[in-house]
User: Fold these one by one.
Assistant:
Number 1:
Amino acid sequence: MITSQSRQLYERARLSIPGGVHSSSRFRRPHPLYFSRAEGAYIWDVDGNRYLDCNMGNGALILGHKHPAVVAAINAALERGLQAGYETELSVRVAEKFLKVVRTAERVRFTNTGTEAALHALQIARALTGKDDVAKVEGCYDGWADPLFVSVWHDPAAGGPARAPRSIPGTRGLARSQVERTLVIPFNDLEGARRLLEANSDRLAALILEPVLIDVGFVPADRDYLLGLRALTQELGIVFIMDEVLTGFRLAVGGAQEHYGVVPDLSIFGKAIANGHIMAVVAGTARALSVCEPGAEQVAFVGTFNGHQLSLAAADAVLDLLADGTVVATLEERTRRLARTCRELAAKYGVDVQFQGGGGHFQWYFNPRPVRNYREAWASDPHAYAVFREAMVEAGVVVAGNYLGHNAISLAHGEEQLEFLERAMAAAFAAVARSGSPCSR
Ligand SMILES: Cc1ncc(COP(=O)(O)O)c(C=O)c1O
């Protein structure tokens, strides 16, 4: 593929933007790709190359790019003229629709990004418990705030024992004092988690976790682990926060909490709720969100752009389309089909690969065994993935930039797009087999 316009734009961009990108995760060597438009399941780069998009706005575009109902809703909202800083009937209606879909929640507040939602949830948890600190799960990404951007995408060799992981900063620039106070617990190891939570319960306001580690691919929690943590946090007076920013509306229309049958005190949603427009949600029990009721003791949950009218218009349309569960069922069926094809192709080309996915999110782990936690994901072969990824891009498919990333399809990925993806997968497995990687037999 010729990407000379992207290269030129990168040379220009790096004079005004560090690395030529506004989110460091978009940086690629030898240069990032720059895009000019998108429609349905496709995006076009500035050189005019068309790609099948399996990034889908980091998983946000559940309905596909430029979905007509979402575009119409936003255009109508633009005509009404209201943007930020006001409450409207729309902001009430979308809250009601959300609570009809996520039945385990009783109250909501809207905000903008997953990171902000996590911080609001943490403040609510502190107000509820009178305690300050937070526990999180090794390998979960819960946004970039100081106490939460901890122990994800790190080298486990520096991460301490599996049953007592160390708190590793996710980036430079975090307040060390906050990172050190964050307790990191292991994933899918209830006994290991129990020991740590019990020993630290007097200082923990909250435990936050992704019910499926999607930010490092796709690693589902065991049901017993989630149910066990729910019961334990209740016993220990720790607020249980489910981070549904990626699982939201994908595993079940009511989120992973419906899929697993777990009722958290608080949960956060984002991404898919507005199909790529900027919106996030803090949802929870009436008791938990009662601390945001007006009064001297309230948690001041504030933000200029909270409940932005354009985002709400998008969410209004998205929730209508998601409500009957058809979108979720369709995405699940398509993911299972890709898993079947992947198994057949892996056997044909003699490649050890685990396709792990659900609800339209997935990752290929070049690993002889299924991946059950962060350290097993890390132990997959990054070189085989790099060969695979390059072949996928060459075949015209945008997939996750590295082996601890994630991929997503949308409602717009129909038969034609799935067949294209399957042909690209075949070519990419052939490339891995030729590369002599330890994952090829
Ligand atoms: C599970 C999860 N939680 C939180 C976040 C943070 O969301 P945002 O990027 O909107 O701040 C992300 C973003 O990737 C996420 O995947």
Number 2:
Amino acid sequence: MGDGEKVVIIGSGCAGLTAAIYAARSSLSPFVVDGVQPGGQLTTTNDVENFPGFPSGITGFELTNNMRLQAERFGAKFCDDSVKDVDFSDAIKKVVCENGTYFSRSVIIATGASPKLLGVKGEKEFFGGRGVSVCATCDGAFCRGKNAVVVGGGDTACEEALFLTKFCPMVHIVHRRDTLRASQVMRERVFGNEKIVPVWNSVVDEIFGEEKVSGVNVRNVADGSSRVISCGGVFLAIGHTPNTKQFTKYLDIDGNGYIKRRTGSFVETDVPGVFVAGDCADSVYRQAITSAGTGAMAAIAAERYFSTLEG
Ligand SMILES: Cc1cc2nc3c(=O)[nH]c(=O)nc-3n(C[C@H](O)[C@H](O)[C@H](O)COP(=O)(O)OP(=O)(O)OC[C@H]3O[C@@H](n4cnc5c(N)ncnc54)[C@H](O)[C@@H]3O)c2cc1C
């Protein structure tokens, strides 16, 4: 990092990369710490069909690589490192990485959230384009005309199941308990939809198929019996883990690990000069476009922050 960088951006997914484009074009000379997954979650999927501007779709790698090239074109610098600690107690913020420590007046946190996985056979093999998904909005259309399995019992699982009924003749919700823990209104919608079949007291033990998913082995935890459910897609809705543990000392974090924003702001935290973008602060939308949107907002807010400092 040189002397001219005004903003350190932590994370290089859609949020961090978009923030880098905007910050670079505002002459903030952003310095981006990549983290262990340059390009972020989207690099784990093949086809992105809902990012505006690509009528034939685009791969996650190509989309995020294009964003990176765009940011570099305007002067953003990147470093292959990960943040292990921060100190936001002074006007000059300290960002401590594995291989060095960086100082800046402003920080944009865009560290994303990692989807929780089941850890069962077949899950990794079929993840990202081959039938195992963590996002029905993103991948539901790929399951058109086939049955789907949703794993989970909360509001997200219900939303995913309801969404999938637009494409799938039958949607099984596999849940380890005998009742959904989703809100009343979601439960009513699910139980009122004849395409959704709850599979109670059950866990997925294995996901199988050839080129793509063709079914799951499900075990009933109450009586130990097993059965096969044929399906073309398995949608995991068992939660996300926001990558925010480095920030708990200085920022307000909610019970699920998401960074809280200052009341009335999309991207400001309670610490002046520290902004947040993307999935690390968003438990609701979790999309590439919404992450990119808040990345843009965070960079604009950082630019305004500097304007106020410089009077
Ligand atoms: C398989 C899959 C398919 C998807 N498909 C779609 C789709 O088709 N359409 C869609 O809109 N959305 C899709 N999504 C969701 C989308 O990928 C996310 O909403 C989006 O990537 C979030 O962007 P982000 O920048 O907030 O976080 P992420 O993409 O999670 O990026 C986080 C970044 O932070 C970095 N990082 C983490 N910790 C640290 C640290 N300590 N120090 C430095 N850096 C750190 C990581 O290396 C990474 O670069 C999909 C998600 C998955 C998992």
